[in-house]
Amino acid sequence: MKGKPTGGRGVTTRLKTAKGRSTASQKWLERQLNDPYVRAAQAAGYRSRAAFKLIEIDDKLHLLKPRGRVVDLGAAPGGWTQVALQRTGQGDSHAGKVVALDLLAMDPVPGAIVLQGDFQDPAAEQAVLAALDGQADLVLSDMAPNTTGHNATDHLRIIALAELALDFALKVLSPGGGFVAKVFQGGTEKDLLDQLKARFATVRHVKPPASRKDSAELYVVATGFRPASQTGGA
């Protein structure tokens, strides 16, 4: 599936009553009801509108390939896992392997290997490698911490989470592999960028159309992974 959901503007849906709801809750519900990506996700059978973010990133950068081995960190509810399966050849002779890992229990995704655990736990790392039966070609992270509303704090927290995801990726990626992680606008921290540039051939930022315009989120995408043995690192 490619591109942005299509269709006319339609009629804006407003909730008939806000009784018992906060103003923020009311606005969130109305936004969900009127979001074309939410409707498109429901129509396509995706578990979340976030599936379209990965679709749009992949349409642009072609990260997901037939027979690819993919790890989806913080995978619940599974929208990115579904897209990864489709684009690595689910159900045909060129099928790849997709491993979804989340701290919380996640409903099975047919075709994927769903694991529950903390990606910072060495046991989880070994379980992922065993499930892949080898190194990964791509590590995905759409993870984000709970926001506080304080931009500087939220920025630091998501950068810290991206750095942890990168640490995991460096341990499981095969040469030439890729890494995608959510960050917030405001500039990726220098330490994170330095690590990425030292270990990947290309590093860029992408804000897919499915990311809401009022959202500070964007994605850092690194490709052409170089193991430490190729960079002179430890």
Can you give a write-up of this model?
- By secondary structure, this protein is α/β, with parallel strands linked by helices.
- The chain has two domains: 16-45, no CATH class; 48-231, 3-Layer(aba) Sandwich (Rossmann fold).
- Helices cover 37% and strands 21% of the residues.
- It is built from eight helices and seven strands; from the N terminus they run αααβαββαβαβαββα.
- It has a seven-stranded mixed beta sheet, with helices on both faces.
- Strand 1 (69-73), helix 4 (79-87) and strand 2 (97-102) form a beta-alpha-beta unit.
**Percent of residues in beta strands?**
15-25%
CATH top level label of the largest domain: Alpha Beta
**Quaternary structure of the protein:** single chain
Low-confidence stretches: 6-13
CATH-defined architecture of the largest domain: 3-Layer(aba) Sandwich
> Helix content range of the residues, please?
25-40%
Helix/strand/pairing category: alpha/beta
The major pleated sheet works out as: 7 strands, mixed
User: Which strand order do you get reading across the main beta sheet?
Assistant: 3-2-1-4-5-7-6
Summarize the structure.
By secondary structure, the chain is of the alpha/beta class. 37% of the residues lie in helices and 21% in strands.
